[in-house]
Amino acid sequence: MTSTLISSPHVPRVNRVDRVMLQVLLALVPGVLAMTWFFGWGVLVNVTLAVGFAVIAEALVLLLRRRPVLPALGDLSAVVTAVLFAISVPPTLPWWMTLLGMLFAIVLVKQLYGGLGYNPFNPAMAAYVFLLVSYPVAMTSWLAPELLSGIDLSFGDSLAMILHQVLPAGVDWDAVTAATPLDEMRTQLDEQLTIAEIRDQSALWGVFGGRGWEWVNAAFLLGGAYLLWRRTITWHIPVSMLAGLLSLATLFWLIDPQTHPFPAFHLFSGAAILGAFFIATDPVTATTTRRGQLIYGACIGATVFVIRTWGGYPDAVAFAVLLMNIAAPTIDYYTQPRVFGHGRERAR
Amino acid sequence: MAANPVPSSERRLWTFHGGIHIADEKALSNASEIAVAPVPKQLVIPLQQHIGASARVLVAVGDRVLKGQCIAAADGYVSAPVHASSSGTVIAIEERPVPHPSGLSALCAVIETDGEDAWAELPEPMTHYAQLDPAEVRERIRWAGVVGMGGASFPTGVKLNPGPDRRIDTLVINGAECEPYITCDDRLMRERASRILEGVRIMRHLLGGPEVLIGIEDNKPEAIAAMRFALGESDLRASAEVVAIPTLYPSGGEKQLIRILTGKEVPSHGIPAQIGIVCQNVGTAHAVAEAVLDGRPLISRVVTVTGRAITAPRNLEARIGTPATDLIACCDGYREQPRKLVCGGPMMGFELGEQGVPVTKPVNCLLALTAAEAPDPGPALACIRCGRCADACPANLLPQQLYWFARAKDFDHAQDYNLFDCIECGCCAQVCPSHIPLVQYYRYAKTEVWAREQEKRKAEEARQRHEAKQARLERQERERQARMRQKKEALAAKAKAESGTSSEAKQAAIAAARARAAAKQQGASEPTDGA
Ligand code: SF4
Ligand code: SF4
To answer: Into which EC class is this enzyme placed (chain A) (predicted)?
Structure first.
């Protein structure tokens, strides 16, 4: 009888998970639009497919687990995972790989651990790495920005490309694909070329990073700023991650500017901005103490630089995030705040 | 009037971690003056209304009692007596539902009032308290049954006696009233500022003359002005200051207010007196003044009856024991059916299962909330570890971790994460996007830990009892054997003496006596080892 009485506080709650997720989706809009502008309809097709697959996969698993379906779908976390995955993979990716990725992310990484809140790894990034390891070629052949290839793929062309892997008559794959700027930079550096030579060689380069890519990253930066302004995320992870990346990049660039690209290149190519504001900030898999988040973010940034510079893969955000997901509980343990009334030493 | 030097507030203020800004809803009830609620037909007076040892019942069914007559005496040091709040006849002494978070019943005296409201004989006013022995004044406060009126209901006399070797440098008066909706302290400060200051003066005297800091949240400018004005008129002005503090829930928490005003942190598991501070609520100061200067026991208090379900929200001076339903009727009843009736504020109060529960000394607010004011938060989702709760926690805890351990019934870890530093303020639950009833989990965990500790204590006592018994049995057995040995030795010595010389016999007798003494000693010392 008394158990029906709900404990304090008796006030309206000010936040809601689905609203938080909705803010994240909103903040992704400029970046997704910029990607579509530069890389064609394939981006939107991928986003749509991924969201569809993710929602269906989540609903099925919930039915199997005999859990209420609508509240879990309604929290929009599966949609966020799907969108983040779809904009991390090349816009040419065959549809079944997207399906595979979403099944992996939702079924294995998220629901088998108990659903939202219990998964130790970021589902979108785990799926990305899973596909990268299994299908390295498909996962690294990016479309060239349309303004480079000069080929304007229509919506129908993009659909055909993703669903049947066919291109319009007279166009071949080499014409539309190009290495990502990070990939290009790494390959050329491996060829012992200097930064100046690399930049002269190709039309791929914009002011800071790759052409088109810089604008995409700027759009994600805008979205990130929106999230900070709405207090959907706090500054700790994005700032520390970008600081970690930039400080190492600056250090090595100062030591040898001929073999290390200008630091801003690291920010405006690849997924650094997207990762800092949208991926590393996934609260479920990040550290939860604010001090821990500074360490967590900085380590991700540093790891990204290390993998980009010396590792075997062109981009590193997914690897770095997954790596630090493992370390998160330990960081949390050692970064507990000093509790009120507990003297100056750290409370354990 | 203008000649009064108004003490200004240039004082440095400190901050605490977290806290939340929340609609204060004070305007609902703070506009009109405190009205005296009429004498109800029946008073239901709980016989224990404080933290500590229970009180001893002094009346029987059928007795006629007078207003102010003591009906339950304090038993033990940390205890407070209870007085009849009007005259009438005791018609029952029985278990009745009382305002308590667990919805428990407690022993109450039910008095049918006679409408005469006739006073019992009261003690002389102590206007000359400054010349009296502090112990005598404290005894008066204790007699009057004054307890903390801010919610904790700890006997005030005890709190005003920090002991001879503890120096109190600061008396903090809590007028923050940080909970939304509640305005009883606000009205009290506006209307009876000088009475409150008289109480402060008495308390200051009892504590050996510390500095006085009166903290009021700055959303109560009228109260601040009234208190400053009254202070300007009083001889306290050299040693006291009214400090306006920023409105931020929970600034009125004892530890938070002390931190804001002095920069000091009350140690975990400690009390303010350990750092030279005593904190009292303005309502308590008022009650102290009434007890000492008028010889009046604590038989009424100001209660805010508010919420959008109430037709005419306002503050009422209610006799202790007045049923909540009577007070709500006094405010023209409900405008709409409330979704819940809460005792206390919306952040820390508890829902009343029973509308007829009586007002007790710590009840500062009856809050009838509509469905729009207190919507059902809906089913809780999983914790997404977003850390918003930790950002809001005034104790700087990690509520998400506490929740994790409480849910898993891992109470040891919950204690490692300082479960008992949680003040149950509700900030974490208010900001949680997953709508997890976090405070409920912490209360549950604390109760479990207490229950376990009690069990452990009981088990420990049983173990000790068992061991004592074992020791006793062993000792008895040893003594029995020692006696048998002595007898044997004595017999042997006798036989020897009979056969040998007299000197040998003497020596043998001495040896036997020695052995006896040694055996006795051994027997006697055992039980102390065993205990
Ligand atoms: S606010 Fe709620 S969801 Fe967020 S970390 Fe705290 S308990 Fe978890
Ligand atoms: S209820 Fe406890 S854990 Fe939650 S904010 Fe208040 S003190 Fe912190």
So the answer is: translocase
Instruction: State whether B409 and B326 are in the same domain.
Output: no
Structural domain boundaries, residue B137: 26-36+125-330
Of the candidates A71, A337, A341, which has its C-beta nearest B381's C-beta? Answer: A71
Which range marks the domain in which residue A86 is found? 14-178
**Pocket flag, ligand 2, residue B427 (CB < 6 Å):** yes
Q: Is B386 annotated as a binding residue?
A: yes
Name, in order, each residue with C-beta under 8 angstroms of B371's C-beta and a sequence gap of 6 or more. Answer: B339
Does residue B481 sit within a domain? yes
Residue B107 has pLDDT above 90, yes or no: no
C-alpha B451/C-alpha B456 separation (Å) is: 9
Q: Choose the weakest-confidence range: B42-46, B47-51, B522-526.
A: B522-526
ipTM above 0.90, yes or no: no
Cα–Cα dist A22/B512, whole Å: 97
Q: What pLDDT, in 10s, does the model give residues A142-196?
A: 777 766 666 677 788 888 888 887 777 767 767 666 667 777 777 777 777 777 7
CB of B261 shorter than 6 A to ligand 1: no
Considering the domain architecture, whether residues B281 and B392 belong to the same structural domain is answered as no
Shared domain for A33 and A159, answered yes or no, is: yes
Asked whether residue A24 carries a pLDDT value surpassing 70, the answer given is yes
Are B155 and B290 in a shared domain?
yes
Put simply, the chain B residues between 207 and 266 with a CB less than 8 A from any chain A CB are 255, 259, 265-266
Confirm if A151 and A171 have CB atoms less than 8 A apart: yes
Chain CA centroid to CA B360, Å:
13
Interface of A with B in 259-298 (CB under 8 A): 283-284, 286, 288-290, 293
Angle at A343 between CA A340 and CA A348, to 5 degrees: 80
- Cβ(A296)–Cβ(A243) below 8 Å: no
Using CA atoms, how far residue A47 sits from A35, A99, A155, A326, in Å, is 11, 11, 14, 28
Q: Closest partner residue to A7 among B268, B387, B440, by Cβ?
A: B440
**Does any CB of chain B come closer than 8 Å to the CB of residue A65?**
no
Residues A31 and A126 in one domain: yes
Residue A31 alpha carbon to ligand 2 centre in Å: 38
Residue B523 pLDDT exceeds 60: no
Give domain status of residue B147, yes or no.
yes
Average pLDDT rounded to a whole number, residues A318-338:
92
Quick one: tokens of B89? 């006849």
Does the Cβ of B399 fall within 6 Å of ligand 1?
yes
Structure tokens at A225: 């700023």
- CATH number for the domain that contains residue B167: 3.40.50.11540
Residue B289 sits in the same domain as residue B399: no
Contact criterion met (CB < 8 Å) for B390 and A337:
yes
Query: Which class for A310: exposed (0-12), middle (13-18), buried (19 or more C-beta within 10 A)?
Result: exposed
Task: Name the residue type at position A196.
Answer: A
- Number of Cβ pairs < 8 A linking chain A and chain B: 158
Atom in ligand 1 nearest the alpha carbon of residue A15: 1
Alpha carbon of B436 to ligand 2 centroid (Å): 13
Ligand 2 pocket, residue B432 CB under 6 Å: no
Q: Are residues A43 and A93 in the same domain?
A: yes
Please give the tally of structural domains in chain B. Answer: 2
Same domain, A127 and A200: no
Q: What is the pLDDT of residue B421?
A: 93
On whether residue B205 sits in a domain, the answer given is: yes
**B195 lies in the same domain as B133:** yes
Residue with the bigger pLDDT between A178 and B88: it is: B88
| Residue B309 and residue B405 in one domain | no
The answer, for A12 touching chain B at a CB cutoff of 8 Å, is yes
Stretch among A7-21, A180-194, B318-332, B451-465 having the lowest mean pLDDT: A180-194
Is any Cβ of chain A less than 8 angstroms from the Cβ of B396? Answer: yes
> How far, in Å, CA of A191 to CA of A198, rounded?
10
Contacting residues of B for A339, CB less than 8 Å apart:
268, 395-397, 418, 421
This prediction's pTM: 0.84
Structure tokens at B69: 């007559």
B394 plus B315 within the same structural domain: no
For residue B349, which residues of chain A lie inside 8 Å, CB to CB?
Answer: 8, 10
